[in-house]
Amino acid sequence: MASSSSSTTTWSFLITLICIFLFMGLSYAGDPFKFFNFEVSYIDASPLGVSQQVIAINGKFPGPTMNVTTNDNVVVNVRNKLDEELLLHWSGVQQKRSTWQDGLPGTNCPIPSKWNWTYQFQVKDQIGSFFYFPSLHFQRASGGFGGITINNREEIPIPFDLPYDDITIMIGDWYTRNHTSLRSTLLAGKDLGKPDGVLINGKGPYRYNDTIVPDGIDYETITVHPGKTYRIRVSNVGISTSLNFRIQNHNLLLAEAEGSYTVQQNYTSLDIHVGQSYSFLVSMDQNASSDYYIVASARFVNQSQWQRVTGVGILKYTNSKGKAHGPLPEPPQDEFDKTFSMNQARSIRWNVTASGARPNPQGSFRYGSINVTEIYVVQNTPPQMVDGKRRTTLNGISFVNPKTPIRLADQYKLKGVYKLDFPTAPLTGPPKMETSIINGTYRGFMEIILQNNDTKMHTYHMSGYAFFVVGMDFGVWSNNSRGTYNKWDGIARTTTQVFPGAWTAILVSLDNVGVWNLRTENLDSWFLGQETYIRVVNSEPTNKTELPMPDNALFCGQLGKLQKPQDISYATSMRGNESKFSFMIIMLVSAIFVVFQ
After folding, report:
1. What's the Cα-to-Cα distance from 58 to each of 65, 117, 593, rounded to whole Å?
2. Is there a contact between 458 and 380 (Cβ–Cβ < 8 Å)?
3. Residues 271, 265: contact at Cβ < 8 Å?
4. Gyration radius of the chain over CA positions
5. Helix (H) and strand (E) counts in the chain
6. DSSP string across 194-240
7. CA angle, corner 243, sides to 308 and 48, nearest 5?
8. Torsional sign, CA 583, 589, 594, 597
9. How far, in Å, CA of 397 to CA of 99, rounded?
10. What's the pLDDT at 579?
11. pLDDT of residue 305
12. Do 453 and 377 touch, CB atoms closer than 8 A?
């Protein structure tokens, strides 16, 4: 009876709080809040038929898709139930004025095991398809990822008819060893070797071939209605394998790439490189004589040797007359010639007349007429020995993450944590391990040439911004290469491919104050040091260009002594005029979260 009375009292209290907060919410004049609770833990799964430990969000692998709208304030309470520290990175979310929420070791201290921590950020002036993932300790290789969908506000038109429904697909190469084993392999100076397969939404391949695919594999099935058009968002969340994505007998009408509406073009298949996201409009216009294959297969490899490294799901019409059968739709036949793939990448262009997150056309920002103020030629190389360790480099420097995050060091005016001396061109002489970062100029316009001297495909990502992809070609970039730049409708995105033995040029307007990561998305090369940060500082500090350090900021490294023990009052983030409302709502969500544990 005492337990029943206590439960009734608890529910009454929570219902009262909910009523109060709903009333406050109706009268709150700012942008809406969206709340998420993420419990990050290990679960056992067998996506390729081998039992292994994967990282789940709320018991799900992959994690839930975060569905938000332009300008929403996003609050994510993270409970770290892993046996190691954790950070979640919101890849492609620009974190405007809020580098503190980026979830990378250069900006945030990690969330200790068994702790809660709350992220709070605004998806300011953004739309599009992105994903989140754990950014420490090679954890992404074990999962912990999920989609992020940022919808247009109702008053902003989209450049196509409203689709019937929205579908998120996560594709990526996969190993049956977990991230700790893969991490040990890299630290021992070895390559990871060929992946064991490709997953589609955390599941293995449909048994399209009895010899190649063992029995008992759980595969992804997407059910659709005939005659309807769906928006299908696809992200490559894998480790290092470029994947060709295709749906049997269906055209992929490309509509958006990482927050930019594209010129709409049909593709029978599209190469999606590690870290990249696209959304397609797919019309269900077939006769449904059978189900259809959804395929994600490895690119630029010997297909006969990599047959098992193929993800296969099923597109099932509600009036389907039978199971999918027969061979998979063919991938591009160009193992040794990457020209087709590069031309495909060049064909992805910005829709300059469409509205993005704002009512004005995307093309109203005329990036091609802005004078460049800073130029960096950033060159990678294959892994090499640096100070007795197998490492990767950019411009001859293998990045070492400091024990005290860069932004935190600036806040407390610590010296010697990093160097503002990242070279504008590759260094001569032996490579070195350092915490060397780029000194960006606030409101400057930077040109970055990414030169890939490795033998494999790389993709490069920049936090805090969408950059313009203005050119790419094989060979070595030179000043004359600027004559080939697209200065009108180059796509604005957050992650771009750089082909082996080739270069890609990007332009970026440095209007977002903070410390922003520039890295390869190839997880093995990133883990071994192929990254740096760009530090952008407003010499006249103001909350208009950067929000204050959040009240719940974690401390580590030289500032570790400032860290207080875990407490619910420190598991919330408050800032500016939002603080009182945000705090009460977060406390409510946290209270409910605790009650249901």
Report:
1. 12, 15, 12
2. yes
3. no
4. 24
5. 6, 33
6. S-SEEEETTBB---S-TTTS-TT--B-EEEE-TT-EEEEEEEE-SSS
7. 35
8. negative
9. 24
10. 41
11. 87
12. no
Going by the DSSP 8-state scheme, the letter that residue 23 receives in this structure is H
Q: Find out whether 308 and 215 touch, Cβ atoms under 8 Å.
A: no
Token pair in block for residue 369:
């007429």
Phi-psi region of 387 (alpha: psi -120 to 50; beta: other; left: phi over 0): left
Residue type, 32: P
For the stretch 372-395, pLDDT in tens is 999 999 999 999 999 999 999 999
Strands 33-45 and 292-298: unpaired
Burial class (CB in 10 A: 0-12, 13-18, 19+), 221: middle
Is the pLDDT at 13 greater than 50, yes or no? no
Return the amino acid letter for 207. R
| Residue pLDDT, tens place only, 80-134 | 999 999 999 999 999 999 999 999 999 999 999 999 999 999 999 999 999 999 9
Cα 328 to Cα 333: distance, rounded to the nearest angstrom: 14
pTM of the model: 0.91
Paired tokens of 295: 């395929």
Between CA 575 and CA 560 the distance in angstroms is: 23
* Contact by Cβ (8 Å): 378, 423: no
H/E stretch holding 532 reads strand 531-537
Q: Give the position of tokens 């400032």.
A: 562
